[in-house]
Design goal:
253 residues; Rossmann fold; six-stranded mixed sheet; SGNH_hydro_sf; Lysophospholipase L1; SGNH_hydro
Length: 253
């Protein structure tokens, strides 16, 4: 495989690593895990993670793309669009323009671009099947851009392993530590690193009695769904006021 010496990761909560919590309160996530694998192979390996939770594609473009391009890394990952797709007033034409601009800019500045075919939510989240036409358009765009730029594609959409609730945090929106570990392995294998386990192997989900399921649903609606709807209605984001956790391309540690 290519000996990469630097990685810059862009995106939203998926790439920031939200819900893969460390003891000190920081978050880790799949991108940190991939950086650790690459750093084991290359002394002095450098890593930046510009992703911030809650960001829409236009915000990723406005705040992250130019700084990432200026770093001129060997490897750059871009994942975004699902925060847009989940919103009722989603403008797919604008998303297409922004994702295309991001991919074109990053591919021109970096040694290799990595794109993601997003996780399929339609079998896991009730009511999300209505989003499938938007998701399909996003997948087609990723495929087209990957062909244009000879990008590496991490195909998460085709795997049913992410249907399992065991890979998701309590909020049911963000991957938990095991979910991030699976994405990290999928990404590492796409980069040509040796496989360490079968990331797509099924994960048994806990079986709950209907009363326990009902209590969990009520708690989820109160603790997670309500605040999420409130932020959408008021135009706020979980990432408001937050800075990237690794804004500079520095040696991984």
């Amino acid at each position: 495989m290519t000996a990469y010496t630097s990685l810059v990761a862009l995106g939203d909560s998926f790439t920031e690593g939200m819900s893969d919590d460390l003891p000190d309160g920081a978050v880790r996530g799949w991108a940190d895990l991939v950086a650790a694998r690459l750093a084991e192979r290359t002394p002095g390996f450098r890593y930046a993670n510009l992703a911030v939770r809650g960001k829409l594609v236009r915000q990723i473009v406005a705040e992250q793309v130019d700084p990432a391009a200026a770093m001129r890394p060997d490897l750059v990952t871009f994942a975004g669009g699902m925060n847009d797709v989940l919103r009722p007033g989603c403008d797919m034409d604008a998303i297409t323009r922004n994702v295309t601009h991001a991919a074109d800019t990053l591919a021109a500045a970096a040694g290799r671009l990595v794109l993601f075919r997003v996780i399929d939510p339609t079998r896991r989240m009730r009511g999300s099947a209505r989003l499938l036409p938007r998701i399909t358009r996003l997948l087609d765009l990723v495929d087209d851009l990957a062909a244009r730029h000879d990008a590496i594609v991490v195909d998460l959409f085709s795997s049913r392993v992410f249907d399992s609730p065991a890979l998701w945090a309590e909020d049911r929106i963000h991957l938990n530590a095991e979910g991030h570990r699976r994405v990290a392995e999928a990404t590492a294998q796409a980069l040509g690193l040796p496989a360490t386990f079968d990331w797509a192997a099924p994960v048994p989900a806990p079986v709950l009695a209907w009363r326990a399921r009902a209590r969990a649903d009520v708690r989820w609606a109160r603790v997670h769904l309500g605040p999420w709807i409130g932020r959408r209605l008021t135009g706020r984001s979980s990432g408001d006021g937050r800075s990237p956790k690794r804004p500079d391309l520095v040696p991984f540690a």
